[in-house]
Amino acid sequence: MEHPVTVENLTVAYHQKPVLREVEFSVPKGKLIGIVGPNGAGKSTLIKSILGLIPRASGEVQIFGKPYKQERRRIGYVPQRESVDWDFPTSALDVVLMGRYGHIGWFRRPSSKDKALAMSALEKVGMADYADRQISQLSGGQQQRVFLARALAQDAEIYFMDEPFVGVDAATEKAIIALLTELKHQGKTVLVVHHDLQTVTEYFDWVLLLNIRLIEFGPTEEVFTAENLQKTYGGRLSLLQESGNLSAFKA
Ligand SMILES: Nc1ncnc2c1ncn2[C@@H]1O[C@H](COP(=O)(O)OP(=O)(O)OP(=O)(O)O)[C@@H](O)[C@H]1O
What we know:
It is built from 11 helices and 10 strands. It is α/β, with parallel strands linked by helices and 251 residues long. Helix 3 packs parallel to helix 6 and helix 5 packs across helix 6. It starts with a strand and ends in an 8-residue tail after the last helix. 37% of the residues are buried. Bound molecules: adenosine-5'-triphosphate. The site of adenosine-5'-triphosphate has 10 residues, from helix 1.
């Protein structure tokens, strides 16, 4: 089987303190995968280290069996909303066009085809009317949609999304999950950092449970069990149960 992402023995440390330890997994193609674990489990760190945005203490990452640098164009990334400088003076359309630079090169002007692709991506996320608006003047949920449009315009084969549902309303969340499902049906592989345990079984085919170490990785119906959640969240699980975040979960 073809593996879009393979991670071997990955350890990442900040100031000598490991925040990911000996993580190993191999992602199957064409799945929608949830990355789940408590705050500070290393979920964002996992994505950033796969993308080479932060250094690894040890480990190997392969994209379709090759080093990341050779295959980076095949990857789309939607970062956490808080990590982006929204004051940067640029329009929504320009942000989406940045997704095309892997195809057109940084120093060439985007063609009318690139612009049409960018506009159609904005249309898909319901943001075509805001194409000329400065991104600083969009709401949080609208900004999130523009970033999603950028990833769509990139036409990647693997997508990493860091909490795409934070700060969006219920209708937008459903629209985003419908888009991600469409990408999956096109044979693309989508990995999503996700916090709402109630929707995990509904949204994701596979789940990666993480708490510094990889707890489990596999099909949701096999992996998303009470026992594995206990291993992942430890004492915090009872808090989640009390808050109702696990009410939909069948043990
Ligand atoms: N730039 C940094 N410098 C030092 N420590 C960091 C840095 N970024 C993250 N950390 C630490 O690394 C650990 C993992 O952080 P990370 O953001 O990957 O967790 P997460 O699972 O994505 O958390 P959350 O669910 O809260 O977003 C945390 O303990 C965090 O405090």
